[in-house]
Design a protein that fits this description.
This protein is α+β, with helices and mostly antiparallel strands and 481 residues long. 38% of the residues lie in helices and 15% in strands. Bound molecules: glycine (GLY) and manganese (II) ion (MN).
Length: 481
């Protein structure tokens, strides 16, 4: 945890935004997989972590604005719990680490809110995203489940977003730790990727790198030779010569801060000329976007700059045609770049996505419904203290190409005959994390090898390896790629 003063100061700042009422922050509970005691790895709610820092289940935080007091409600362990889980600090001892002296058992939480409901006090809470939290709020606030979901407090959402969007120095340090481990995760993959190895083996080694650093992953690893599928979590393929391998993976620190990076790596030691052409267009888009990052600029404009860079490169290769500004305004480039350039990042890899993109990434503006732009999570004007990803990509999605071609979509801008030559090419993405500073931006973490020369130079160091697998009778000797 950070120093207790950090949590006290964060709560004081929040409290000062309200003239009265109660702010209610349910922490997350354990979540069962296949029977009650066999649970998914515990992940605390990020806003709870931000204001209370306590990274364990079955807690609720309350800020009483009228009385200027903060509470942690939770139960101490019973002797049965201690037999199975070992002794743990009491709730009071733990709450002290978050600067809180008022603690009470969960049974009192119900009495506290029964009284608050009777007194018709205004009670603010954030949109719940877990079923058990909805049920807890339903019990506490005496409202139907639909009403619980619909009555989340816009005032609280906006206040939390204002605070969490601007990263403090201690948060930036934490994100940098995650970023440095994330670079190591990607270097690990670059050294392993070769013909004969499996996606699962690379994914496992990447995950191990995060675990060995006492962290974990900030989202399920994407480690795939089928990079055209944006969120491909299947790891069942064996890598083959001539393919590209896409890794999208990030570390999460023990305090819950995320990093998120993507690399595209040739399975062989070098990229083919055809791969280089597409890779360099993505890299140009990446560099143009990074160059443009600064406060006062709308991220939507930087996204469109990346889109134009991609469309220009594809036009030079003969895959697109016509006026590029018109093509991008119409959304024709989205055949190849159907997603957003990046997103905010912090305690969540897509920061505060549970609070609503219109507040977090768009500052109350309406998001475009155009294909491509509708998937841009961040569009707002950038401010110093924002942390975000830059992740342009070029994807050849066979089903999308076939559909647009059959429908005759954007025939003024897309040269389908040439695109068909790339129908099975796959996908390329490069992603890094940046802090918006007063002057411009700063890369978070060590630089990730990105240029063709940098990636190939790591691959050239690869040695022959003997891979042992449970499903092989004899060890498979895999030649250097
Ligand atoms: N790294 C996964 C994503 O940004 O969606
Ligand atoms: Mn990302």
């Amino acid at each position: 945890m950070f120093d207790s003063k950090i949590y006290s100061d964060r709560r004081q700042k929040l409290l000062a935004e309200f003239s009265g009422g109660l702010l209610l922050f349910p922490g997350n509970n354990e979540s069962s997989m296949n029977y009650a005691d066999n649970t998914y790895p515990f992940r605390q709610d990020s806003t709870f972590l931000y204001y209370f820092g306590l990274n364990f289940p079955e807690l609720t935080g309350v800020v009483d604005v009228d009385e200027g007091k903060c509470f942690i409600f939770g139960d101490d362990l019973t002797i049965d719990d201690i037999v199975w889980m070992g002794a743990q600090p009491t709730i009071a001892q733990r709450a002290q680490k978050a600067g809180i002296t008022h603690t009470a058992p969960l049974a009192d939480l119900h009495k506290y809110f029964a009284k608050a409901v009777t007194q018709k006090r205004s009670i603010h809470y954030l949109p719940p995203y877990r079923a058990d939290t909805k049920i807890q709020l339903h019990g506490l606030l005496a409202k139907g489940l639909d009403a619980i979901t619909n009555s989340a407090s816009t005032e609280l959402i906006k206040a939390v977003v204002r605070q969490r969007n601007i990263k403090a120095s201690e948060e930036i340090l934490e994100i940098e730790k995650a970023a440095n481990i994330t670079v190591d995760m990607h270097l690990k993959a670059m050294r392993m990727v070769r013909p004969g190895i499996t996606e699962a083996e690379v994914a496992a080694a990447v995950h191990e790198q995060a675990l060995a650093a006492n962290g974990d992953i900030s989202f399920p690893i994407i480690a795939t030779t089928q990079g055209a599928t944006l969120h491909n979590h299947y790891h069942g393929n064996t890598l083959k010569s001539g393919e590209l391998f896409l890794l999208d993976a990030g570390c999460e620190t023990p305090l819950g801060y995320a990093a998120d990076m993507s690399s595209t790596i040739p399975v062989d030691k070098t990229f083919t000329d055809r791969q280089k052409d597409i890779y360099n267009i993505t890299l140009n888009a990446h560099n143009a976007a990074v160059e443009a990052l600064k406060p006062g600029v709308a991220f939507k404009e930087i996204h469109l700059l990346a889109a134009k860079t991609i469309a220009t490169g594809l036009e030079e290769m003969g895959l697109m045609k016509g006026n590029i500004d018109d093509a991008v305004a119409a959304g024709a480039h989205a055949l190849f770049f159907p997603c957003g350039l990046g997103h905010l990042m912090g305690l969540d890899v897509h920061d505060m996505e549970n609070l609503g993109e219109e507040y977090v990434g768009y500052h109350n503006e309406k998001k475009s419904t155009q294909f491509g732009l509708k998937s841009l999570r961040l569009g707002r004007i950038l401010e110093p203290g924002f942390v975000l990803t830059i992740e342009p990509g070029i994807y050849f999605i066979p089903e999308l190409i076939d559909m647009w071609r059959a429908e005759g979509r954007f025939t003024d801008f897309v040269n389908y005959e040439r695109v068909l030559e790339y129908r099975d090419f796959g996908g390329i993405r490069n992603e890094e994390d940046f802090l918006i500073t007063e002057e411009g931006s700063r890369l978070l973490g060590k630089p990730l090898p990105k240029s063709i020369a940098e990636v190939e130079s790591i691959k050239k160091e690869q040695k022959t390896k003997v891979l042992l697998r449970l499903d092989h009778n004899t060890p498979a000797k895999v030649p250097p790629s």
